[in-house]
Amino acid sequence: MNSRMYSLGSKRSVIREIFEFGKKRAAEVGADKVFDFSLGNPSVEPPAVVKETLKALLESGDQTALHGYTSAQGDPATRKAIADYIAKTQGAETDPDLIYMTCGAAASLTITLSAICNAGDEVITFAPFFTEYRVFTETAGAKLIELASDPDTFQIDFSLLEKAVNERTAAVLINSPNNPSGVVYGEETIGKLAALLEKKSRELKKEIWLITDEPYRELVYGGVRVPYLTKYYKNTVVCYSYSKSLSLPGERIGYIFVNPHAENARELYLAVCGAGRALGYVCAPSLFQKMIAKCQGAVSDVSVYERNRDMLAGALEEYGYRCVRPDGAFYLFVKSLEEDAYAFCERAKKYGLLLVPGDDFGCKGYVRIAYCVSPDMISRSLPYFKKLAEEYGRQKSWETPPQGVMGKK
Ligand code: PLP
User: Fold this and answer.
1) 361: CA distance to ligand 1 center in Å?
2) Portion of the chain with pLDDT greater than 90, in percent
3) Is the confidence at residue 51, as pLDDT, over 70?
4) Domains in the chain, start-ordered, CATH in brackets?
């Protein structure tokens, strides 16, 4: 057997372990005493139009076509609907023939990385980052270069990026709104990033791709806007998923969009088709492709997440916890109350609080709290977060929080 695959399959997943522990613990002490903040599974129902559209499709005439294969890159009508929607809402140039339907962001990323990278290439990303980036990049034969972010804001540290880009750099991979920090890259950051990559491409005389992982694009709060990357940098590939925006993570549907302005856009798209073929990601789920074509613009009720964020972030701040204020997604990335985040999570478990250590996200000394849970669970968990903070003497070990930290922005 392949030893790398064996090692990937047998390696423990911290999040999965915590989730299993939660189920066991709930059976022992009662579900009301376990507060599982480990999983990024949307807690809000899909919008009603999803169910209505699926129902109408299932009751419509030709069931063979409905469930049959689409073309490998996806149904033309679906790709056109997506292209039209991006053009209308973002004012970006689009082309259905540069869209490839996939099984969620995970497939979008594995395909894109395989389409771009050759053995020995490097892909740069910024910590904290989605844990699977390492696996996806290595599967594409490349190496993930993990750069620390500005610790006060979790924005890009451009001095580190400037030094890291070299002749082996095939791509820079970003995720905004971010899992696990919830941070959004604004227009200024994106402008600077585009300028730096253009300068480096010229100096090194090579294409450097910008891969933007966007499952949380619509999950933003307080009127925050997420810039559309193809308008800022030509060699951009968008990896999108409906897992979070429509609360459909189990249905595995998303897409890849190659910017029409990219150098060799058509060739890269063919490489995307090739990678999809090589990895077995052809013809994304047909029923859901057809639903997507009719549900462009629909989004789950994100105000629920916003209220959760406010309730949890406000209370944690009061108890002496520190974190960068999240503008999007549904995670808080909180400073652990001791250096070893694993030890802190073990202590939290005593109170039934199930949190994920930040180490796997490339950031030691932090924990991720997924607040895509019921508001009731959050309010019941708060006294335990308070007791946990008290166990550490609350703010005693904390210096004054720097600018940009929750509540100080
Ligand atoms: N990228 C990020 C940042 C994520 O948080 C996730 C899932 O949580 C994925 C990719 C994978 O998304 P999907 O379930 O659509 O494959």
Assistant:
1) 13
2) 90
3) yes
4) 3-46+300-392 (3.90.1150.10), 48-293 (3.40.640.10)
